[in-house]
Each structure stands twice: as structure tokens, then as C-alpha cells.
Q: What sequence folds into this?
């Protein structure tokens, strides 16, 4: 087991290795922006899916893509400006959870925390589904490949992350810049071919027959459909908050560098998004079966076939989306460990594994993301409605927290900051509302129901930890109420293991010491008593008859009687056990397990397993 | 939990209630024969399935049903005569496992044991599938009802059997005699209508179109097909051995009464089987979709419609098959407990539950039977090929053992007994061979592969138990090698729970006592040392730095060092724990679990959890 774990997970990492290397802006950009920028690979597609699949409209509807994209871009600008405020206010890192906790109180912070956790899980599911879609577009694999490839990616990322990733900037820089470059080449080629060469839309033969038929229809979009399309496009903003969480990782002056990087990121994201949307509105890269990556269709058309440029574009898309998913592998465990440290999640999320990784968080994230991928059949369009609500709830709480922050701090020019954040809060809050209303039945109800439930769970865990912590608080003069000892050794027969248990108990010189055995009849008792004498054991042996042929109940009854005899002592039940190896241990002591479980909840009762070890060879040690 | 268990399982039964009531022959017959006699409900159908589904033959092939049935009946007579010998030789109960163990040795007995366990599991699966088929025939439910109804029956029987069934003879007598009566009425009606009224075969309109088409073909069966059909019919013999297991339950003289009852049973079984086979060969009650009970078709036709008699026949069929399945619920746990007592199965199968039931055996049986039902889609014809091999392997070993027994005992007229058993052994051995060859690809390979694997598992469990038992054997002058104590209390911070742990350790006056804490830096250590002084604790506190931010490794390293310092002492690691309730316990002490698991395998190391109990109210007790 240990070896297998080491092969999969690697050797333990020492804390000393965990040095933080400060990031330059050029490196910080890809590290923090892969999530946000990668959304350009699917956000435009998702706008088109809504427009074309759900409205009986013709090709004129493609014209709506670009205006919708402009609204998204404006929203992006607002959110980016808002987060610049956060960066300056929280140079030590201001995620939505922390900003809400410090400014809005416990419940809002838990809502923000739940939203972000949901958001991170969906980042994995959506990004992996998007990355796999790019690969499937490149290799022309049908939808039956979606789930297996997605699950393979998740498993691979999980193993890599359990090994612990050194967040090496270079590893991030390559794919992200490569992707940005490829998208810019695509947009440049597109603009040239549209504006100079005057190419028309992608011929219908590339599209499926459904889409071809659709193109004969005419009609326009209602406001509701526009809202739905916009809700899908708004997922492009997911990940914009990443930089504000990571300010301390920047080179000095941290806040200024982070804030500049945020501006760069927003500009690149906005530019790529608008560019792709413009190409899409003109070239209509839409397949009615929705099973194909829009960038891929554009690339194939604009680059003149499935050539080197097309393949590079698809590989870059895959790489940046996997990187984006990977950021959630860092963010989810980190946030869940913070929430666990604050006492609202089980401590298991706060314990690090052997390689400094919050292993439980990684495994939980991977498990839920896999579940989502399987349930939604690896279909990105089915996952998108679940995604945006969490993202925008987080934004809203974070920005609202910032407004409160400005009012509390009243730093120079705080009014400007407050206005910016208020606009951000209002805008993102409105979007959250639009998303949940317009996509409710398609899946937005899931996060809308899940987040409150998660908050209730957080609260009840928090209450339990608070209560248990308060219960054990001790003043320096506190003295334990019980100090005398009654020891009971559980005896089955006479062998080395039992003799070790008896010796252990006797050598501790308890105030009272006795052995107890469970027998089904007198004959059994007499035989054991005979042996007891033969072995010359000077400890009282009590025989308990078991009318139920059970161990736990009669022993518990015996202990209850014993307990009643004397006040103020601690009863220690000593169970001699033969310990073999993890392969065969389950063959032993099974009947003692129930007893142990029941004794665990008995006050002033301590259970001690005294192990006798048996090696593979049959040699025993004590 | 306890309450839910009690509602489902009932109150514990005292051993005193477990009085064996001796059975008269009239009651013993239904108690032991329901399994064997119930097979008349499907064995004839299964012969027809093979003949008609797998051979391109016409209605003349139905003529083969009766001759095949006669061969099965002859076989039945041989097996019954053989088992009469067993009854007299083993008046205390002679199952195949015991007879093989006493006469043939360990491996044959394990083969017999494995065969019987497989047999019992299939008894449940096949009988339940057959019972549900009767119900579906009565209520005209399609095949989609099969699995849900079967699983519901298994769940119900499992709950009933976990409650513990008083094997009340009356409960068995009713359905079994009712079934025998209904089958006799059916046969009587059939003979009257065929021989006196000269009715012809069931008109084709009742049959499906496939069967109607089949009826236009002509052709006869090859030898191989006859062997296959016979292999299916031979399952009628399953359960014949039941009486020989239960001799001690009979009124005195036990062996004589049991032997008479066996003759009755064989006569009734043989008579019913031949009667139904004769009706089938004349009336052709066959539906090509195989989804309908042959007795039901015969009943509907002979009784003149779906009237009261038809319904009574179907209900009786269902009842007797469920009873038959229920016998396996007694046999499987009993046999697995005997094998476990002999050390070839985990002891978990030997421990009885609160209601004197071998609960683990019951649950295991139910689990595997359910799996079979689901995998084989509740289809009795798919399960039959798996069934007969185990049955006949058990017969063969049991009869071979009896031959050896006669040679060893040389009781009066032993030669006659030996000849009878030798014929039995040869006949059943030949059938086992025919079954496995003729049905290999349809499923007979499963028991043929499984039984040897089970024997290997039994052997390896047996070796492990033997080795571990030998390792702990102690002479009366054996003395445990270690008697001095080093105690280490694991300390996280200072609270009541930890103070209780320290008090517990100190009051035991070990030879060496110290506390150990894991810290990540000097600051943490100094803070704890400050508190240590403030609380006036006079126990040495050792701080261990955890470079891996882990608990288990540094503590283990600390204990290794400590262990090296002094020879011959036992190291007791005391872990103070807060115990809440089973609902919230998992929120606590998670990081100590890994440590405990690792310490379990460390020699001369004892782990003691000293619990401090917290009530729902937040009050604590120690």
C-alpha cells in the first residue's frame, strides 16, 4: 500500500521546500488568468447554443451574438474595476469569502464560501468538458468519447495534484500565451478575410442539416431569449477574481503589480471574447448537434482546412482549459481548508497530506466534478446553467463587502471606490438574478438550492465545533474527577496473547483488577477455570453467561454492575488482540469490534487493545 | 440506530427460547421437503425450454419430455436410496460437508462445502425467480416485473430471517401440503381429461406465434440435446439431501422416521414430477417467450380458465417456492458457521447475532442471491445451468464418502450399503459431468470455476488461522517478556480532554511518563510551554516539529527514538479524545486515526484512547 501510494503520489515533501517564489507580472498573468481567458473557448459557443437551439429564428439571429458580447465585455470592465479596489484594500489576498467575512458577517461569508466551492467544482467540470470537446473536434471523435476522456483528465489531474504541483510559472505561461497567440491569429485572419477578402458565412455543407434548415427561417430574439443567451455568455467572467486572491504572490509593490496585471487580463479576455464573438456573428460557426468547438469550426474555415494552424489552435484550447481546471485544484482545497480552519467544515479538510496538499479537498473536488461530468454526460452546454449563478453570487457578495469596507475605512478617495464597488455589486447581483431566473429549470436551480443547504451544513458544523470546544475549556486549576482504576481483562482462552494482556494489566497495578470471560455453559467455565489454575494466574476470573451468545451485551452488563459497586473510578477494559497484517487482520477480533464501538460511548470507560504481533513467518512479538 | 434495528429485526432472543421441538413425520415432511418438492414447479418447464428453444424440432419433440422425466425419476430413486444409507450411518446429521470430512479428508470436504454454499445461493435465486414467475403468470405481469419482485422477496425474507424464524412445522406444513394437493388435483384433472375426455394439446392461440410456427416443424432430438434437456430436469433433485442433514430433529426412533419420511418425499416428488411431465408431453404448455409458468398454462387449460382452482394452484406454487428459498436461509448460515468453526471461513460467519441468527451468513446469502437475480435478469432459465453442477457435486462427494464409510465401519450387511452408495456416487458423478459439459457455455462454467476458487480461499484462510493459533499457544509457565511501562500522552492544547488523558496516565504510575506535542514552529511550542507552566503540570512535555505538517510520521519517529533508549518496556500511547455521538463523532479526531492505524502494527506498543464524553447539551463527563 505504502509503495503504491508513493508511486502514484510521490515522496513526501518537506515544508522547507514550500518556498514561495514571487511572480513577475508576465508570469503572474498566465498563472492567474488561465481560468478567465480560457472561457473564451466556450462562452461564445454557449451564446449561440441558446440563440439557435431554443428559438425558432433564422440566421439573422447570429447578429445578436456580437451585441450580447459587448454587454458581457462592459460587465467585465465593471467587475475588473471593482476588483482593482479589492486588490488595494486586501493586499494580503481578498477572496469573496474573506472580504464577506470581514465586512458582512458570518452568514454572507458562508454564502460566498459555498458559492465559490460550487464555482470551483464547476470550473473543473466545465473546463474539462470544454478541453475534451476541443480534442474531440480536432480528432473528430463522437460524443460517446466525451465522458471517458473527461474522467481520464480528471483522474490524471487528481493524481498530479495529490503529488503536489509546484506552481511553476513557466508551466502556466506556455499554454496560456500560446492560446492567446492562437486566438489572436484566428481573429487577425478572420478580420482580414472578412473585411478585405469579404468571405461570407461558413457554407451550410459544413453545418448539420438541422442548422441548414434553421438558416431558412427568419425571426428575431425576444428579450427573455436575449437574457438567456447573455446568461450563458456571462460565464466568460468566471475566474476574474483569481488575481485578487493572489496578491501576496506578486513582486513588490504587490498591489500595484496585481492591479496592472488585472487590467491586462481584462483587456486580453475582453479583446479575445469580442473578437471571437464578432467572427461568430459574421461566419456562423454553428453545428446544430452542438457537438463541436466553435473555435475549431472557425479555424478550419479561416485557415483553409484542418492544417497546422487548426491543430495548433485546438491543442492550445485543450491545454488552456486543462490549466483552467487545474487552478480549481489549487483553489478548492485552499478555500475549503480556510473554511475548515474557521470551523465550518470538517477538520479533515484542514489536514494536509504527506505532500503538503489538502488531499481530502482534492479528492472531494475530483469526486463531485466526476459525478457532474457523468450525470451531465460530459456536455458543456448542460453544465453552463449551473455555473454562472455561483460565480455571480460570489462577485456580488465580494463587491458588497467592499462597499462596506470603504464606509468603514474611509481611506482617501473612498467615495470613488465605494461608488465603483457599488456599481459592481449591483451589476453582478442583477446578473445573478437574471441567471437564476432565465436558467432556473435548466439547472440553475441546483446551485440555487445547494448553496443555502451548504450554508446550513456549515452553520451546524460550526455550532457543533463551537459547542464542543466550549465544553472542554479548562481553567488552570481544573482537576480530572476520577483517578482510581478498575481494570477488566477480556479473556477468551489461555494463550500468549491473553497472557500478554493479563501481564500488561497487572504490571500497571490498578486499584482493582479482574479478568472476565463469556461462556455459554458451565462446562466451558469449568474448563477455563481448570486452565486458569494450571497456569497459576493470581487474578480473579469472572465468568459471564451469554444467553444471547453475544459478546457485547453481557460484557456491558457486567461492567455496569462493576461500575455501580464503586464510585469515582475509571474502568479500563483490556482486550488482548492478535495483530497480523492489514491483509489478514479482518479475520481476527471481529467479535470484539461491536464491544469496542459500544464501550466508546460509555462514560469513564477506557478500552485498551493490547496487541500481540504475528509476523508472516508465524513468529510473535509483544 | 438501535431502535431502527429493533423494529426491523425484533427484540433479542434468549438461548433458553431455542428449544428444539421434535418433529413428527407428518410435520417433518413439509419442513424438509419443500425445497425438493417445489422443484416440480419449474423442472418440467426447463426440460421444455431446452427442447423447444434450442432445437429446430416440431411438436413431436414434446414426446421426449416424459421419457426424460422417467430417467430423472430413476435417478431420484437411486439418490433417495443412497441417502437412506446416510441417515442410518449419521443419525446426528450427515450433510455432504460432514460426511466428506469424516471419510474423504479435508479437500473433498471443502469441495462439498463450496458446492453446497453455491447450491444454497442458487436455491434462493432460482426458487424466488420461480415463485415470482408464478405470481406474474397469475397476474399477467410482463418480464419487467421480474427483478423488482424478486428483489422485494429476497429483502423480505432477509428481514424475516434476521428476526430469527422459529422453524414452526405448522408454518411449513400449510403451503407444502397445499401445493402437493393442488398439483395432485391438476394431475388428476389432466389424466381424466386426457384419458377419458380425450382432449388434445393446448390450442396454438394460447401459445405465442413463435411456438405456433415451431409446431409446424418436424424433427427429433439429438443425444446432445437430450443430455441438455436432462441436465435441466435433473435440478428436480435439488434439496433431496435435506432430510439427511436434519435427522436429530425427528421423533424417536430418529433414523427410522427420517428414512421413512425420505421415502415418502421421494415418492411424492417423483409422482408429481412424472405426472406434470406426462401432462406436459400431451398438452404442450409451452410459450416460446418462456415467460410463463407451465403449471399455470396447464391449470388454465385443464381447469377451464383462470378460475379459483387456477389461482389456488398459482398461489400454492408461489408459496412453496418461497418456502424452498427460505430453507436456504437456514442451511447457508448453518453450513457457513460450521465451516467457519472448522477455521476455513472468517469467524464473522460463526458469530451469531442478537436473535441467535448467523446474521453475517444471512446477509451474505441475500447479497449474492440478489446479485445473481439482477445479473441474470430474474430469468429462471438463465439461472438453471448454474444450479445443477453444485447439487450433483455435493451428492457425488457425499455418496463417495458413504462408500468409504461402509468400508471403514463394516457394519452388518455393509456390502449392500456400499453397493447402493457406489451406484449413487457413480450416477450423480456422471450427472455432474453431463451437466458441466452440456451446459458449460450457458453458465455451468461459473460454479465449475467458482468452487475450486472457493476451496483455495478456504484453504488459505484455514492456513492463516492454524498458523496464528499455533503462534499464540502458550505453555503454563509462559511469561510475557515485557512488564515495564513508558507512557506517552499526545497533547494538542490544554483542555479538559487533554487534562483527563494526563491524569489517567499519571494515576497509573508508569515507569516513565511524558507528554508529546506536534508543533509547526517555535512560537507554537513556546505558547504551549507557557500554558503548561500556568496549569502547573509536572509531566515532561516534548515538542516535536512536524516538517510534513503531519501527525503520524513525527510521532512515530519520536516513539522509535524513545523505544531505542530503553530495553524491554511496553510503550503506551495515550490519545485524549472528545467523544460526542455517532452522528458527529466523525468531525473529531480525524488526524489521530492515521496514527492509530500505524501504531497498531508497531510491536510492544499499546494505543489508549482516553475519552471525554460530551452530551448533546454540551455537558461533559469523564
A:
Amino acid at each position: 500500500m505504502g509503495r503504491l501510494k508513493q508511486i502514484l503520489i510521490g515522496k513526501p515533501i518537506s515544508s522547507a521546500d514550500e518556498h514561495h517564489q514571487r511572480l513577475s507580472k508576465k508570469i503572474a498573468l498566465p498563472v492567474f488568468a488561465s481560468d478567465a481567458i480560457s472561457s473564451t473557448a466556450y462562452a461564445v459557443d454557449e451564446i449561440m447554443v441558446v440563440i439557435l437551439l431554443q428559438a425558432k429564428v433564422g440566421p439573422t439571429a447570429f447578429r445578436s451574438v456580437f451585441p450580447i458580447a459587448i454587454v458581457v465585455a462592459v460587465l467585465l470592465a465593471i467587475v475588473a474595476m471593482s476588483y482593482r479596489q479589492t486588490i488595494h484594500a486586501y493586499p494580503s489576498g481578498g477572496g469573496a469569502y474573506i472580504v464577506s467575512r470581514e465586512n458582512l458577517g458570518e452568514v454572507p461569508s458562508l454564502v460566498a464560501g459555498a458559492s465559490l466551492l460550487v464555482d470551483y467544482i464547476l470550473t473543473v467540470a466545465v473546463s474539462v468538458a470544454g478541453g475534451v470537446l476541443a480534442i474531440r473536434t480536432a480528432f473528430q471523435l463522437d460524443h460517446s468519447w466525451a465522458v471517458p476522456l473527461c474522467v481520464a483528465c480528471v483522474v490524471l489531474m487528481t493524481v498530479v495534484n495529490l503529488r503536489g504541483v509546484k506552481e511553476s510559472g513557466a508551466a502556466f505561461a506556455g499554454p496560456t500565451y500560446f492560446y492567446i497567440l492562437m486566438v489572436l491569429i484566428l481573429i487577425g485572419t478572420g478580420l482580414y478575410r472578412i473585411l478585405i477578402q469579404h468571405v461570407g458565412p461558413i457554407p451550410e455543407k459544413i453545418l448539420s442539416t438541422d442548422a441548414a434548415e434553421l438558416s431558412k427561417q427568419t425571426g428575431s430574439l425576444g428579450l427573455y431569449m436575449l437574457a438567456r443567451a447573455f446568461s450563458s455568455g456571462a460565464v466568460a467572467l468566471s475566474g476574474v477574481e483569481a488575481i485578487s486572491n493572489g496578491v501576496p504572490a506578486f513582486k513588490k509593490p504587490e498591489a500595484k503589480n496585481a492591479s496592472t496585471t488585472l487590467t491586462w487580463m481584462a483587456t486580453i479576455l475582453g479583446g479575445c471574447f469580442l473578437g471571437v464573438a464578432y467572427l461568430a456573428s459574421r461566419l456562423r460557426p454553428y453545428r446544430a448537434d452542438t457537438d463541436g468547438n466553435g473555435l475549431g469550426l472557425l479555424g478550419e474555415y479561416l485557415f483553409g482546412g484542418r492544417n497546422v494552424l487548426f491543430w495548433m489552435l485546438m491543442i492550445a484550447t485543450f491545454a488552456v482549459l486543462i490549466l483552467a481546471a487545474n487552478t480549481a485544484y489549487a483553489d478548492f482545497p485552499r478555500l475549503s481548508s480556510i473554511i475548515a480552519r474557521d470551523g465550518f467544515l470538517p477538520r479533515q479538510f484542514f489536514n494536509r497530506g504527506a505532500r503538503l496538499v489538502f488531499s481530502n479537498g482534492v479528492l472531494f473536488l475530483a469526486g463531485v466534478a466526476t459525478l457532474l461530468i457523468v450525470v451531465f454526460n460530459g456536455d458543456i452546454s448542460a453544465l453552463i446553467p449551473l455555473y454562472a449563478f455561483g460565480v455571480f453570487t460570489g462577485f456580488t457578495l465580494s463587491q458588497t463587502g467592499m462597499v462596506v469596507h470603504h464606509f468603514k475605512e474611509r481611506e482617501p478617495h473612498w467615495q470613488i471606490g465605494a461608488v465603483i464597488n457599488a456599481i459592481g455589486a449591483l451589476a453582478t447581483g442583477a446578473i445573478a438574478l437574471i441567471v437564476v431566473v432565465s436558467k432556473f429549470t435548466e439547472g440553475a436551480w441546483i446551485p440555487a438550492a445547494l448553496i443555502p443547504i451548504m450554508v446550513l451544513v456549515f452553520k451546524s458544523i460550526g455550532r457543533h465545533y463551537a459547542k464542543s470546544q466550549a465544553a472542554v475549556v479548562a481553567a488552570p486549576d481544573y482537576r480530572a474527577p476520577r483517578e482510581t482504576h478498575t481494570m477488566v481483562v477480556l479473556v477468551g482462552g489461555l494463550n500468549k496473547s491473553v497472557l500478554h494482556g493479563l501481564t500488561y494489566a497487572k504490571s500497571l497495578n490498578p486499584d482493582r483488577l479482574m479478568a472476565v470471560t463469556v461462556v455459554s455453559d458451565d462446562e466451558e467455565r469449568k474448563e477455563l477455570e481448570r486452565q486458569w489454575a494450571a497456569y497459576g494466574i493470581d487474578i480473579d476470573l469472572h465468568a459471564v453467561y451469554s444467553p444471547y451468545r453475544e459478546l457485547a451485551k453481557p460484557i456491558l452488563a457486567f461492567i455496569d454492575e462493576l461500575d455501580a459497586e464503586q464510585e469515582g473510578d475509571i474502568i479500563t477494559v483490556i482486550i488482548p488482540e492478535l495483530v497480523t497484517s492489514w491483509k489478514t487482520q479482518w479475520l481476527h477480533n471481529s467479535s470484539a469490534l461491536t464491544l469496542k464501538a459500544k464501550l466508546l460511548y460509555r462514560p469513564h470507560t477506557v478500552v485498551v487493545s493490547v496487541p500481540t504481533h504475528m509476523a508472516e513467518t508465524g513468529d510473535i512479538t509483544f
